[in-house]
Amino acid sequence: MNEVMVREGDGEPVKIVMERRVKPGARHAFSQWVKELMAAAARSPHHQGSSVFMAGEDDYFILLRFANQAELERWRSSPETVELLGRGDTHATAPGQALVQSGLETWFTIPGRPSPQLPPPRWKMALVTWLALLPQALLLGLIMPTQLPYLVRVSLSTALPVAMLTWVLMPRLTKLLYRWLYAHSTRPAP
């Protein structure tokens, strides 16, 4: 399987994102395989979480998070994992490349457009995120009723901006600022 590695500093958490399209008639076998894959990842003491998302009937995204790049590589190169990943190919195809990401760059992708090999520089990601978050925080500070219990106010003032960033603002800002964000992507990786 082809893979794109996005590496940040050593010691930082990383996640691998595997896109799979289930072969006709293999949905049950694929489902069992995913459970085995998640269980194998969970046996690693450096595994920090897993998620599976469906995008349509037969398209899946499998996310596995590890403590750092070295631990992910150790897990991926183990004989059990190599065999398990190979077996998965009998039930599904990989229409895209597996990505390994470590942070905010997951917000800076555009559906249907391949992710560049390198994420945007952290300062650009931080600046765009702050610019998207600041107006929301200011507005919520003005309109949030002060009579609400503290926990409700804090919950709403964090949940609403996160939802807006994830599903509304960041996809649009990334599309609008794509050339600026990924201006460095044309240079070869170090």
From TrEMBL:
Gene3D superfamilies: 3.30.70.100. The keyword Transmembrane applies. Signal peptide: none annotated. Keywords: Membrane, Transmembrane, Transmembrane helix. Residues 13-80 form the ABM domain. SUPFAM superfamilies: Dimeric alpha+beta barrel. InterPro entries: ABM_dom, ABM_predict, Dimeric_a/b-barrel. It holds the Pfam family ABM. The chain crosses the membrane at residues 125-144, 150-170. This is ABM domain-containing protein. It comes from Cystobacter fuscus (strain ATCC 25194 / DSM 2262 / NBRC 100088 / M29).
